[in-house]
Amino acid sequence: MPLTDRIAFDEDAARAEADAARDALTTAETSFEAERRIARRLGGRVEGDRALFGFWTPELLDQRVPSGDIFLEILSPLEPLDLTRAHQTVRFERAWVPVIREEAHCFTAVTGMRAGSRETIGDFYALAWRDAEDQWHRILDPLAMSLPFGAMAPAELYDVAAMQAGRGDTAYFEALRGDAPHKFGPPGNILQIHVPTATAGGTLASLTRHYQRLAERVARDLPLEPADQLFLGYDAVQLLPVEPTTVYETGPDFWQEQDGDSDAVEVSLLRPDTTNWGYDIVIAGMSTVNPVLLESGRPDELIDLISVLHNFPSKPKKLVLDVVFGHSDNQGLDALNSHFFAGPNMYGQNLDYQNPTVRAILLDMQRRKVDFGADGVRVDGAQDFKWWDSAAQVLRHDDDFLQEMADIEQEVAGTRYRPWFIFEDGRPWPDEDWELSSDYRAVITAQRDDDVFQWGPLTFAHNTPFLYTFWLSKFWRIREMLDVGANWISGTSNHDTLRRGTQVNPKLNVNTRLGRTRMEILDKAYDNPAVHVLTYVALPGVPMDFLNAMARASWGFIRNQDDRYGVKVVAEEAISLKWQVDEYSYSVPANFRRLKELGFETREELARFMEFLPALVEVTEYDLEEIARLLSKAEPPLAGPEFTVVNLKRIARAWMDDMHDYCNVSNSLPSLDGEQAAFCLATRNFRRARPWLRDNYGPKDHFDYLHPVSGRTVFTSLRHGPDGEQVFSVAHMEGKPTDEIDPLTLAVPGIKGTGWRLALRTPSIGGDYTGGPITLKDSMALVYTRAPR
């Protein structure tokens, strides 16, 4: 049946939507409360046999567009559409449906539209308006629930209720149902995962299959390989952002209209294939899932993963989603109207949090996203949520908005709940003295809930545990953790610290005792058994590990969309070659194949180019023409293609794509150290069995380093459980070996007496050691327990 015969404008339903918006604007106590009510009606949603649509369109008021020139544009594929194909050209029928306008909002209702589901591709849509020259312009839906071709393309109408009805963890949520909304608390620990590099498949579906396999092995009590142990022993999984990110600056677009008329249009469709670390977002599409992460193109894949985690044998695993509202990439200007933005910042654009509609839409985007079934929310860069106080002429932190984020009530499977919240907030960052002046407690002390968490001082960026004196220089921060760290995320390995580590000048005072090569040093610094003991046994808070660090896989700033500044970004990342890629790794045929095709056949050849590039970017002030000219004059000549601006951009793209492939955790699984993996799992299970270790230190607890220092930093910790159990640990963090010592005879108040049992030893301490004198070396640690007496 032709689209125009299948669908019909439901004027009464559309008018009811507009009337509801008018009622909200008239009766709500504040404009913000009115916009929060209206935001529930924005986007496209399915109710029975009717599809309802709402758009916030202040730009139409700005440009004085009359109502008769505004329509809902509906696009329906005339032939089968396969979202798993890399490229296809499809002809779409097109229909135009009137809208009813209410101030800065447009509403409409349509019967007969096809809604998308796991099995069915739905109709696509956008708002369209016609100017005085009869030229058409689109307004895309920023609250869409399915964006198969990204945030810069028309959205797919999606049956969210059907998606929710098919979830596999309904019983998990039903068990939490009560008269009041359930409030999720903190898990025991967290595994942070970047989906595209977590498995060879690089999708949510691939990660789901991996956890299904693990669940089956655990349920059957089968032997666990190191690759299995890597993912186990965690109470929660935190995904790096899963929403749509930026697109290629200079194309190709994933949705390219080739020819058409008012009734039909031919579209060249590309499966989205950008590589990104997740934080280069455009705000539009925050409610749904980045199509790059979807093997099937269906957002159901996120619910599938959550369901598998919630149904994990022996104990459910929680899912934490990462919300990025502190900035938008400049590409957001192409996806959203200008009223969303408050001016540029170092990442792109600030958002206008004081605009009541923007504020309401952001909060509803968060509500819809977390309704996929997340147990927790991590808020990225909360110190960047600011507004300009014109009266005082100062920027102020929007703590009220952060509280509003934490107060949102979710509903899944009929259960109302409020998720657990983590805020990354290093204010007064980016002030020069932020590392000294930040107390990492600004949100904790400001919010009403007593279980609000922040990233702690050892978890925030710029931590370099592979440099000598790092641990002793951070001792003052560790002392703070003992007193107030219960509501901090702890640990040194995450997406930010590992990336920063690869940017450090290797000529600094590197702790060469960590390994023989730079790669070994960096790997061990962020997967250090002594640090695991410190984090999981000695310190309060909720430990978090980054999968790439635990697998000793590489990591960095991965973003292949840049055209204008791509070469500059690669120049800034060039130093990571020294830390993460050795001659052997480069020589593996599957690694860096794009760069090899461009002429950099050996690591030595690439390294020489990478020495020149950062210097030339700086001295020419990023003049690409001049950089290409100077590179061509090098003697002896540099390897690589002919140096032109075009080829420099090709090299930059090849670097990003090759690094993305190189960072995939699957590459590191065959070389995992079985003893290290087993030790880390045992340490995690030790902590999970003693949830009281999350608490701040009590009056009987003790933490210090051995005095005198004598060229090494050795931490000792004694902790007391509520049942009387004592946990004593000693960890050699850096420096020269100790003299032979018996840990249980050290001058630590409270450890005298008998009854101690050795519970954990780091892998470099042989299995034959059960106690007594020992010489501790860098990265060695021991954990003892004593039962209540």
Automatic annotation (TrEMBL):
For this entry, the protein name equals Glycoside hydrolase-like family 5 (GHL5) protein
Q: Which domain of life is it from?
A: Bacteria
What species was this sequence derived from? [Roseibacterium] beibuensis
- Which Pfam families does this chain map to? GHL5
SUPFAM superfamilies referenced in this protein's UniProt entry, alphabetically: (Trans)glycosidases
Q: Which InterPro entries match?
A: GH, GHL5
- Gene3D superfamilies from the UniProt entry: Glycosidases
